[in-house]
Amino acid sequence: MMADEVQNAEGAPEATTENTGAPARRGRGGRDGGRGGRDGGRGRRDDRRPRDEDGGEELIEKLVHINRVSKTVKGGKRFGFAALVVVGDGKGRAGFGHGKAREVPEAISKATAAAKKAMIRVPLRDGRTLHHDGRGHFGAGKVTLRSAPAGTGIIAGGPMRAVFESLGVADVVTKSVGTSNPYNMIRATFEALGEQTSPKAVAQRRGKKVSDLIKRGGASDRAAEAEAAAVTE
């Protein structure tokens, strides 16, 4: 019994020496594990990429105007950039937004994000032109929009052309009076587009058929029914 106790006592220091080395190894392993956790964190950050709100649908982005702005502070002036962007899906949805930042790419990204949140639906005839004429007014800007037959093209200039290209309109005639400020022109254009209505919406609101509305325009019964069947929205 005494010999066993002596052996155990003599073996204890050896076990203590091995055990004291083990925590050091575990500590290094813990640091390695910490690095692995940081690498995993990078992987999660890569997954948080900005996505379109339309579930990955491709959008048409048009940079309408970019302007350098400055802010006077105590130490001098701080320069930045302001961007105006129009976004659309080419199928009757469009929106506009503006953003400010110290760098141009960041200002454009802010404006694009704002435009995606403010997209509106505009009913189109045959998917190519407006259903009826419209007028819009904002500030000193006044615009007039007119539907056009096939083959006319987009008769518009500057900011208004970007709106119709992103909206998916192929034939339209427009006129802008009063100002060339792109912000006011864009807002006036979207005001006119927001008043667009389709025959189907009017018929549903009045409790009638689309063919009944077309007949009041002087069309025959057969022509009214054929045109009503062609109306998609």
From TrEMBL:
GO terms for molecular function: rRNA binding; structural constituent of ribosome. Residues 1-56, 198-233 are annotated as: Disordered. Keywords: Ribonucleoprotein, Ribosomal protein, RNA-binding, rRNA-binding. Residues 29-56, 209-225 have a biased composition (Basic and acidic residues). The keyword Coiled coil does not apply. Belongs to the universal ribosomal protein uS5 family. HAMAP family: Ribosomal_uS5_B. This is Small ribosomal subunit protein uS5. It comes from Sphingopyxis indica. The gene is rpsE.
